[in-house]
Write a structure and sequence with these properties.
Elements (H helix, E strand, L loop, with lengths): L2 E6 L7 H14 L4 E5 L7 H4 L10 H5 L5 H4 L1 E2 L6 E4 L12 H11 L5 E5 L6 H8 L3 E6 L3 H16 L4 E9 L1 H5 L6 H8 L3 E6 L2 H5 L10 H15 L3
Parallel strand pairs: 1-5, 1-6, 2-4, 2-5, 6-7, 7-8
Antiparallel strand pairs: 3-4
Helix pairs in contact: 1-11, 5-6
Length: 238
């Protein structure tokens, strides 16, 4: 059965799209067939992070409005043959996409994939609810900043009302020096504060921002952290 996972956050700028792209790549590297779908209409960047921005012909809106079949809009990632990208579009009135439209599209895509990862708009507006309603699981991306944790807590309370089968947290851009000096919360304390399991901890690393998914050098800590996150997602860490 295809696992449909929405990757969301309360606060913008926490690296949600980078998490989506790099998790998708790691899953593909492990032999899973993966589709990463950009549901952030108007502020989409998944095509850039996956390195396919120059290959886009059709997008998610073309699929929804019947100008192409979903298969025609899918772009095979240059980083791995098992990873496909369904891009979004910058200039579009997002109100024209209904929850039913998006859910039908994701359901149709799920036939050919082991995982469908949906990059969700930040915040708790209409785009958030559309993306969540199309999925069965959720990953909430946060940082150790108090403002980010506060927003993540609000998102988690809403996600619980959807009765999703799995909800996990990824703590992104964490700095070990600040944690060691007790200037930032540990992942364990974040888990206790948000009352939700932390399934991944990604260290602060400029290479995550500067490189496309699949281009992280194996020796860097972020590469190892994404490998652990992937394992936890596949095995549904408890």
């Amino acid at each position: 059965m295809t696992r449909k996972i929405v990757i969301t956050s309360g606060k913008g700028g926490v690296g949600k799209t980078s998490i989506t792209a790099n998790l998708g790549y790691r899953l593909a590297l492990g032999g899973k067939r993966v589709c990463v779908c950009d549901a952030d209409f108007g502020l989409n960047n998944l095509d850039v992070v996956t390195g396919v921005e120059n290959l886009v012909v059709y997008d998610v809106v073309d699929c929804i409005e019947g100008r192409c079949r979903p298969k025609q809009a899918l772009i095979q990632s240059p980083s791995h043959k098992n990873l496909y990208v369904l891009p979004s579009v910058h200039t579009f009135a997002k109100e024209r996409v209904s929850p039913e439209n998006l859910k039908e599209l994701i359901e149709g895509l799920s036939v050919g994939f082991d995982f469908v990862l949906v990059d969700c708009p930040a915040g708790i507006g209409g785009g958030f609810h559309k993306a969540v309603s199309a999925c069965d699981e959720a990953i909430v991306v946060t940082t150790s900043q108090i403002s980010s944790l506060r927003d993540a807590d609000k998102v988690l309370s809403i996600l619980r009302s959807y009765k999703l089968s799995e909800i996990g947290i990824v703590v992104n851009m964490i700095r070990g020096d600040l944690v060691a000096d007790k200037l930032a919360l540990t992942p364990e304390k974040i888990e206790g504060l948000l009352k939700t399991e932390v399934i991944g901890v990604i260290p602060a690393d400029d290479r995550v921002m500067l490189k496309n998914a699949g281009d992280l050098p194996p020796e860097c800590e972020a590469f190892k952290a994404f490998k652990t996150l992937c394992s936890n997602v596949v095995n549904k860490k408890k």
